[in-house]
C-alpha cells in the first residue's frame, strides 16, 4: 500500500469533527429543533433532519419537547441515537440506552445524565479516532507482507492494495458491529 493511500485515509478521518465539539451545547437548558439538527450535523457521519427527530418522538424514543424546546438530556439522546442508528435498529438503540437509563420518557430513573453519558462516549470515541494512525500503519505492514511475493505491475498492486484496505476496514467495522450486537443481546433487561 502506498503512502498516497494512507494519506487519503488520514484525510478522510480528519474530515470528521471531534464529537466533543458539541459538549458546550449540552450545557444549555434547552434548544429548538433546528438548533439540535445543526449541532448533530457538526459531529455525525449520519444525515439527520427534523423528520428523524420527530419520528423518534412519535415512536416514544424521546419525550415530547416542552414548548418546542429539547432539554440537554434529549439533545444528548438525539446525538447518541443518530450515531447508532446505522449500526443498530432503533429498538436495539433503545435497549442499549435503556440499560443505563430505563426509559427515555422519564429521567427520574436515570443512572447517569444522558449529557454526561454523551460526554464520556465522545471522549472515548475521539481518543480512538486519534489512534487510527497506529492501526493504519499496522494495516499497511500487513498488506505489504501479504503482497510481497506476488509479482504484478505497480498499477495493479496499487489497485489490489486499495481494495484490501477497504475490505479490511469493512471487515473490522462488521466485526465490531457483530461483537457489539451480541454483547447487547446479553445485557440484562
Give structural attributes.
8 helices; two-stranded antiparallel ribbon; mainly alpha; 189 residues
Order of helices and strands: HEHHEHHHHH
The end-to-end span amounts to 46 Å
Tally of DSSP helical segments: 8
In which order are the strands of the major sheet placed? 1-2
User: Quick one: biggest sheet?
Assistant: 2 strands, antiparallel
Q: Sum up the overall morphology in one term.
A: elongated
Rg, Å, rounded: 20 Å
Number of domains: 1
Percentage of β-strand residues = under 5%
> Would you tell me the overall average pLDDT?
87
Structural class: mainly alpha
Residues in helices, as a percent range: 55-70%
Number of strands: 2
Given as residue ranges, the uncertain stretches (5+ residues, pLDDT < 50) are none
